[in-house]
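Field log, afternoon session.

UNIT: design team B
ACTIVITY: writing a sequence onto a fixed backbone
BACKBONE:
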């Protein structure tokens, strides 16, 4: 798996920096991730999806032939949550509780795809998503004693990462649409799906096959950092009187 990742990274690196793109773009995005964990040998586990805020800073190349290459620094929270019922020593229901397990990852996606349009921009891409587990937090709500007394409404703790793999590798597919709102800016909406290839736990300890998966939707702003000087669409903004009759790439 590491050899595949290394080969992909080298290939991506040389493609990314060996060609001159039509546009170089940076963007800032923020959104909502809805994630969970699939377990291959546990049926009907009492866990549900976890919703978390995510964000990314991206760097992208757009080429003349429609090729898109991109990478990012991505805060990529994942996890799950479970709800349960508290009872006292006599079996009487005293209240409902909830526990959230959030895995806080920093990801560095490598994405390749196709883009179309200019004023109205669309990008379809996919790639790999290497991630590093920074911390694991557990948030419990409504904690009762055996006597039925509510002792704490919310408690957040940082869990030991020792039993979990720090490195995770996932696949990702993404669709983005946007509109140009100025000489250098696009407003973008994106939706993506990711699924891990690597087990999140040490099988020797837990004997589990557990994988992260989830969807992310985000709003962002793309900033046109550099472009080819011969680009007719961009030059129309910056040189008075230069208005090509047929804008390139879908106008």
């Amino acid at each position: 798996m590491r050899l595949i990742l290394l080969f992909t990274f080298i290939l991506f690196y040389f493609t990314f920096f060996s060609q001159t793109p039509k546009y170089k773009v940076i963007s800032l995005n923020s959104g909502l991730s809805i994630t969970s964990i699939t377990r291959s040998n546990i049926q009907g586990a009492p866990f549900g999806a976890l919703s978390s805020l995510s964000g990314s800073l991206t760097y992208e190349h757009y080429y003349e032939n429609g090729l898109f290459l991109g990478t990012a620094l991505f805060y990529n929270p994942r996890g799950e949550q479970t709800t349960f019922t508290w009872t006292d020593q006599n079996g009487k229901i005293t209240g409902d509780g909830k526990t959230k397990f959030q895995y806080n990852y920093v990801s560095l996606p490598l994405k390749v795809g196709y883009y179309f349009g200019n004023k109205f921009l669309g990008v379809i891409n996919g790639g790999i998503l290497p991630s590093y587990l920074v911390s694991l937090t557990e948030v419990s709500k409504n904690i009762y004693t055996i006597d039925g007394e509510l002792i704490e409404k919310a408690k957040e703790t940082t869990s030991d990462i020792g039993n979990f793999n720090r490195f995770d590798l996932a696949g990702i597919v993404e669709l983005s649409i946007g509109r140009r709102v100025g000489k250098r800016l696009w407003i973008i909406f994106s939706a993506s799906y990711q699924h891990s290839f690597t087990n999140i736990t040490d099988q020797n300890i837990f004997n589990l096959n557990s994988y992260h998966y989830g969807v992310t939707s985000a709003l962002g702003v793309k900033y046109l950092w550099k472009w080819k000087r011969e680009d007719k669409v961009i030059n129309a903004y910056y040189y008075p009187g230069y208005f090509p009759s047929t804008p390139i790439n879908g106008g």
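LOG NOTE: Confidence is low (pLDDT under 50) at residues 236-251.
NEXT ACTIVITY: expression trials, pending approval
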